[in-house]
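Regression test case RT-17, inverse folding.

Input:
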């Protein structure tokens, strides 16, 4: 009889619960929800969200979805991944395009969208307080403009969750999550397997945590990460 994998899911809520439900549904193991990060909305004057002034809205995280309530459902939305695009469509937006995984692919999509090639497009990016990947803002190779509006911040936990024990596998979805994990986790790295959503996350791990069994997703999406389990 195969023993079920015990998988720590340290994502913020509600994403952690969504991931845990998907792990169970796919029979990949027994998830343990223990958020190490917490999402805090940043209040903004909604007048800055005038969608009439923008050719499109960029969404790179599910944490920004609540801010979409201020935009017309006919707005053009560009997301960094397919699952995020599905979430946006579920909110009633009908013009949604996905870059299928990375910021480089998203930038290519923005540059080459057939409706925008004849002018200098102007976008708004609903982002977090910190931007871990500045690829979109390297504008030396195209003529688009991106206004960044911070609509949430992510705070790290100050102590290890008491319920986070009896696990052997850990899913790491961001650099900030990995930093919080290795700062707070009291357990022996050599007894754990860490699954990193990208090489950037794996590269941020301190030497002590490289004693763990490290696995990195081939593509930065949850399907690719789950394929390693």
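Golden output:
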């Amino acid at each position: 009889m195969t023993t079920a994998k015990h998988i720590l899911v340290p994502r913020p809520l509600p994403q952690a619960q969504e991931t845990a439900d998907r792990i169970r549904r796919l029979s990949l193991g027994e998830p343990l929800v223990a958020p190490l990060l917490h999402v805090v909305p940043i209040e903004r004057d909604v007048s800055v969200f005038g969608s009439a002034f923008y050719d499109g809205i960029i969404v790179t995280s599910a944490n920004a979805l609540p801010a979409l309530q201020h935009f017309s459902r006919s707005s053009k939305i560009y997301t960094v991944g397919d699952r995020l695009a599905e979430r946006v469509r579920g909110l009633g937006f009908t013009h949604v395009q996905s870059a299928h995984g990375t910021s480089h692919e998203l930038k290519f999509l923005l540059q080459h969208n057939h409706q925008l090639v004849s002018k200098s497009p102007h976008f708004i990016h609903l982002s977090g307080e910190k931007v871990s990947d500045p690829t979109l803002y390297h504008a030396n190779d195209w003529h688009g403009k991106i206004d960044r509006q911070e609509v949430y911040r992510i705070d790290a936990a100050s102590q290890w969750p008491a319920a986070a024990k009896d696990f052997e596998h850990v899913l790491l979805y961001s650099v900030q999550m990995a930093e919080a994990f290795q700062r707070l986790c009291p357990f022996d790295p050599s007894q754990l397997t860490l699954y990193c959503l990208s090489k950037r996350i794996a590269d941020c791990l301190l030497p002590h945590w490289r004693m763990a069994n490290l696995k990195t997703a081939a593509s930065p999406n949850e399907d690719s990460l789950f394929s390693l389990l």
